[in-house]
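Field guide to reading this record: the first block holds the primary sequence, the second block holds the structure written as discrete tokens, and the final block holds curator observations. Each block starts with its own label. This record concerns Endonuclease/exonuclease/phosphatase domain-containing protein, catalogued under organism Alteromonas naphthalenivorans.

BLOCK 1 — SEQUENCE
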Amino acid sequence: MKYRLLVSLFTLLSSTLLPTALNAEALESPEPLEIHKGLQTIKVATFNVSMESTNYKALGLAPSAKVLQKVLSNGENSQVKNIAEIIQRVNPDILLLNEFDYIADQSVGIDYFIKHYLNVSQGGQKAVDYGYVYTNTVNTGEPTNFDLDNNGKKEQFGGDAYGYGLYPGQYGMVVLSKYPIEQANARTFQTFKWQDMPNAQQPILPAASTDEKGTPWYSKEEWQAFRLSSKSHWDIPVNVNGKIVHILAMHPTPPNFDGAEDRNGTRNHDEIRLMADYLTPERGGYIYDDAGEQVSLKENDRFVLVGDFNAADIGDKHRPDVIEQLTESPLVNNRLIPTSAGGAAASSEAFSSRFTAYWGARADYVLPSQYGFDVKDAGVFWPTKDSDLYRLVNDRQASSDHRMVWVTLLVK
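BLOCK 2 — STRUCTURE
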């Protein structure tokens, strides 16, 4: 108990006295912090691990979720070992994994990752365990009978799936937690129809002349069936010592890889808007979950938004009025922006310390509610090139093209 108290006091003093960017590598917190007059401090993180069909070409297999299952089965994949070491070093209490293929049989999917990678010391780090897991189906690779990409062929997968993917479950999501997940109260929004959002940004192919109206990208039948979420939107309630924290997880589509119709850009905007409306009681009345119930958060619900939102907040990749739907919401605390020394050194941009992706943008977010938390610390795991830990982020093959983002919160 004395050891845990000393560790807690050291971590608190470090987060208070040191700049976040300098703290990016000294992130280990062996136990949840238990001071502040009985209040609980938790670390919440998001990590796009880029583990969809890991190394399927090297294995000589066709892309499918079975490839990831094979990789996870033996604990020997170098990329996945590095991902596990990053997780062990940051040691979050609640963690969202993006781009972790959905495998219906959890025992040979996420359980394999926990057993063969996280429960095994990586790089001399202390093994970590997560007793609570949430995973579910996603729209990526979910086939349709439409020609959604308008290439003249109904191919079911790829650009004709509800969310771009070569097979069902690609680019999936998983929530890991050291605190109980209230599975029965989890809400998913995978099947919410885009057309059911008031004033939805329906993609329009511009007309050749400004005197003419543009043409809707999707046919009437397609628009009526089209799902808004490119993967899914989740509300996962986690019980932190009797206080419910809503983990609001998503992974909106990148706002590119399209054309003048901007179908991915408009979708990204409205995917983010769905979550912004969901957490705002007076705006979320139109939203229904996959059980068909109209739902939204209530006033003074604690929440943490997590995920790769594919929406930059500054710079040449920034699209105005997209991520601001969340970062400028009066219900969201965006005051302490996670940073890293590695990100700062990776670009000449004055704001690059906030980057979370190697291609130069703040794309991944952990955004707590104003209500119910004090933000104590935050960071991005991005070591500098002169660090011994740079081997973990050297390139996409080392771990991922994204960095883990974390925020430490005092639960009030």
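BLOCK 3 — OBSERVATIONS
Confidence is low (pLDDT under 50) at residues 1-36.
The longest strand covers residues 40-48.
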